[in-house]
Amino acid sequence: MFKKVQKYRFFIPLIFTVISCNKTVDVKEDKNIIIEKKVDSLLKMMTIDEKIGQMTQVRHFWDISKNDVATKFIGSVIHTQGVNPGETAIEWQNKFIKLQKEALSTRLGIPLLFGVDAVHGQNTFNGATIFPHNIGLGATANEKLVKEIAAITALEAQATGFNWVFSPCVAIPYNEKWGRVYEAFSESTELTSKLTKASIKGHQGNLSNSKTVMATAKHFIGDGATEFGVEGGETSLTNTEIIEKLLTPYKVAVNEKVGAVMASFNTIKGAAMHANKAYLTDTLKTKMKFDGIVVSDWKGFSRFGKNNIINAGVDMVMAVDGDLNYFQKEVKKAIDSNVVSMSRINDAVKRILRQKFRLGLFENPFPNKNFISKIGSFRHRKVAKQAVRESLVLLKNHNDVLPINKKTNKIVVVGEHANNSGLQSGGWTINWQGTKENYKGATTILDGIKKQSTGNVVYDKNATSKHFDADVAIIVVGEVPYAEFFGDVGHESNKLTLNLTKEHKRYIKTYADKDVKTVVVLISGRPLVVTNQIKKSNAFVAAWLPGSEGDGVAEVLFGDYNFKGKLPHSWPNSLADFKGKYGPNFWDNNIKPLYPFGYGLTYKN
Ligand code: BGC
Fold this sequence. Notes:
By secondary structure, the chain is α/β, with parallel strands linked by helices. The protein has helices at 2-20, 27-45, 48-54, 68-71, 89-104, 134-140, 143-159, 189-204, 239-246, 248-255, 277-287, 300-303, 307-312, 324-336, 342-358, 378-391, 445-452, 502-512, 531-536, 551-557; strands spanning 56-59, 76-79, 113-116, 164-165, 216-220, 234-235, 260-263, 267-268, 271-272, 293-295, 317-318, 393-397, 410-414, 456-460, 472-478, 517-523, 539-544.
């Protein structure tokens, strides 16, 4: 068995040498031709079980037991909520190195892809640099910065053992009730497309570099455009609307050679997107010429029509949570009975192998230990802090209450969000649903205020200490972390609304009613209906979900830097704006936003 692996490995560089002798062939094309030849030769050697194995993706815990990677020929392993691969980065790497060695020990030695939901930095690792969520990056509208952030995320993902990230989410959110608004850049197709391009460039580089990872444009298509913003709900747009408003970021992603596209949970005309051949195959693969991997979302196979999803064009299946054996058996039966054709299977496997070759995994299957020291490094945090500063949108600044003079005698800081890096970071931070605790290496907004001020800073967490003699009150309020359907407004799992909680309204009222100059900083994954709170306060800042560098917020409040952020979503005036199927992003002409898309004030000089 071992000998065959060795033989195959020898075979690859050999073809490479022969073909690359022809100097007249364009180098890039040359590389592609070589890869296609390698893919074809390898595919010819594969059994049906090996092919099905390549199409299988599992978690490194719970889904697999000893030897499964080798005996079930697994193609990809992911990390997500559940059991961490270890405490330290080296333990994470070692866990994945062990699994990689198991894959390499098989007859053909095909390396694994290791995927992770690194959606705002390598957010599954405690101690990584956590960037603002994409909505905040949308507010920066800074392509260069987004590219740099993606490159850092790629490096920190590699440093913890991954070569694939399930990011960026390129949705266009139609309704702020959707629990994933913050995962997307903007309601604007144009801005989303610009930042999608930058993000994919940053993540992937030229793909074969060991510092970069394969990116995933998700969720294809219509995830953010469901009626009433329900995660996995019905997207009732016309085909023309889907093509005009939602498809462009995917076109850009495909042009940038994105390695993967993830199918979406939503339905279109009542039919699951996972089983939608017209979009997955005819549009994405055939018309748009996407040659990468269409990966299913969570348990996509058992949830959305089993072999129909393979026939529709899904190439790799997230066979998690009890789906592994079921998927492998069912698809094998389907091949035997011609329900799924061999050519469909071959196409799927080719796409997976192609990306593995493009990533250089056959030559370089293991993570690099030298990258570990870069996790959460000063340089990375500096970029994250720049992103925090540039993402802040100043909505109101009555009588220039901002910037705050550093020598101000007494400042009172209010709100649990002011002193909690978990709360300021949103979902997909350390845990899937985020954390409500401080995490490693992060600074809070209060830390930043204390650093900036030379006067007296007092913290009144719940607005009960009544420091009415303060010159300024900085009140930090907002949403608690959530992810996916847990964040849908109206979902039975939560009591979320698009308003602030009673408690948070009271924080603002307590100080504003006593005529303390009130600066409100809103931490949220979407625009909220805060019209009355904006009226009550002297200054109001939309800070989105800044991530680990909370002190970046204070640097702008105290005038070290000017405000730069512009609204990536139009801002609703009232809850009534959400009465329709779709929210105020897609206003009918009678509804006027409180602030339009692109709004944002700055200091005068
Ligand atoms: C989400 C995806 C995510 C996947 C893997 C799904 O529930 O919809 O965005 O990449 O889980 O964690």
